[in-house]
């Protein structure tokens, strides 16, 4: 059942085994706050993190690929047990190739979520290219699907839910949380 998703997007999402996430503008809203020492602060959405954890529970690998170096992103990756964290990338395509080969995947089994031009080379290669709702127009045009929520505001969770539903794993994960809620009530 494809729900409200276009059939082509549903089909593409059903094959995904690896989700590549940009950080600034995808996992965050793209804004940077600096303290007096020049340290950057970033805000991450808790539901995006929960979606990532559910994907991992379902056996989907998740990687962060960031153009910027950031202690905040590094700590968020560690908190979510992201094993593949790459930062300071001018060109993300070589990392895509490395991870693809290391995991023995085909391009059709890889998804990426993007917001800006630097991610266009990834989007043209992967099986499912997603743009966040507030992405630049060129990224939206290159996407197979555009989220309804903006980056840093739950867009990643939308992608995680899509993948889990298309892979047929959503109901089992939902039952897990419903069962835990019932046990808690008794």
Structure explained in plain terms:
This protein has 186 residues and is α/β, with parallel strands linked by helices. The chain has a single domain, classed as Rossmann fold. The chain contains eight helices and eight strands, in the order H-E-E-E-H-E-H-E-H-E-H-E-H-E-H-H. The chain has helices at residues 7-14, 46-57, 71-79, 93-103, 120-123, 137-142, 155-166, 170-185, and strands at 18-21, 33-34, 40-41, 61-65, 84-86, 110-114, 128-131, 145-146. The strands form two sheets. It has a six-stranded parallel beta sheet. It is globular. The N and C termini lie far apart (34 Å).
Give a brief description.
The chain has 186 residues and is α/β, with parallel strands linked by helices. The chain is 42% helix and 15% strand.
Provide the spatial order of strands within the biggest beta sheet.
5-4-1-6-7-8
- CATH fold-level label: Rossmann fold
Whole-number mean pLDDT? 89
Element-by-element helix/strand order:
HEEEHEHEHEHEHEHH
Q: In total, how many beta strands?
A: 8
Question: What's the assembly state of these chains?
Answer: single chain
β content, as a range?
Answer: 5-15%
Portion of residues within helices: 40-55%
* Integer tally of domains: 1
- End-to-end distance, in Å? 34 Å
The geometry reads as: globular
Low-confidence stretches: none
Task: Tally the helices.
Answer: 8
Given this structure, which CATH class is correct?
A: Alpha Beta
Q: Which superfamily, in CATH terms, is the homologous superfamily?
A: HAD superfamily/HAD-like
